[in-house]
Amino acid sequence: MILHYWRPALEILILWFVIYHVLLFFVGTRAIHVLRGLIIIILIFFLAQKLNLEVVGWLFGKMFAISVIALLIIFSPEIRQGLARLGQRHLFSLPLREEEMDFVLKEIVSAAEILSREKIGAIIAIEKNDPLKSYIENGVKIDGLVSADLLQAIFAPKGLLHDGAVIIQQGRLMAAGCLFPLTQNQDINRMFGTRHRAALGLSEETDALIVIVSEERQDISLVYRGKLYKDLSRENIFSSMKEILKKNE
Amino acid sequence: MNKFTRWAIAHPWLKLVALALAIAAWFYVSSEISKFNY
Description:
The complex is a heterodimer of chains A (249) and B (38).
Chain A: H1 6-26, H2 31-50, H3 54-74, H4 76-85, H5 98-117, E1 122-126, H6 133-138, E2 140-145, H7 148-155, E3 165-169, E4 172-178, H8 194-205, E5 209-213, E6 220-224, E7 227-229, H9 234-246
Parallel strand pairs in A: 1-3
Antiparallel strand pairs in A: 1-5, 2-4, 3-4, 5-6, 6-7
Chain B: H1 3-9, H2 12-36
C-alpha cells in the first residue's frame, strides 16, 4: 500500500527542495517581504479552492497573477543579479572548520586591539545563518583572506573605505564600506554613536555578530541579536565570539 | 556538528513554509491534470 505513494512523496520532496532553495535565495534581500505577502496570497488561494469558496478563490487567483507580474517588474534588478549568481551558489554551504574559525577570530581580535589602541573606529560584521549578501552588494567587494593587517588598512582614517563596515562571510573578508540600517530604538545611551546604532540595527534584522571598536572610548564591544556586550577583555572577546558563532538558534 | 546536521537545522520555518507550498502545489497541479485528463 505504502509503495503506491512513493511517486507523489518523491514529487513533493523534489518540489520542497526546489521551493526551499528559491525561498533561501531571497532571504536577506528586500524581496523577502514581498515574497512573504505572495506566499500568504497563495496559501489563501489554495485554502479557498479546497473549501470551494468560489468568490474568494477567484479574487485571490487574480491577485496572485497580478502580484507575480508586479514582483517581476519591481525586483527585476535583484532577479537579474540572482540569475547571474545562480551558477556560483553551493546548495549545501560548507561550514567553517574549528581551526579556520579560530584563525579568523584571532585576526579580528588582534586588529580590533590595535585599532582601539590607535583610537581608530571600526565595525566588523560576521555572517552567521542569515545572509548578509544585500549589505555586501552595497559595499565594495573584496573577497580576500581575513588578516589583521588588511583590517587595519581598511579602517585607516584617510582610506576611502574606513567609514563603512566590513563583512566577513564563510571566513572570508567579503566587502568593506558597507552600510547597515540604524536602529530605531530610542533607549540607547547617548554616548553611543552612529557606529553602535548601525551595529544594533543590523543585529535586530539578522543573526550576524558585530564587533565594534570605539574611537572615542577606545573599547571593543560585541553586538548580537539586539544586545550590546561591552567592556570585554581580549580573552573574553575571543571566547564570547566563538560561543556566539557556534550557538545554533 | 557535521555539514548535513547544520544544513538540516538551519531555517526551520523556511523549510516548513516550503513544505506547505510543495504540498499545496502538488495537490493543485495533480487536480488540474486529472481535470483535463492530460
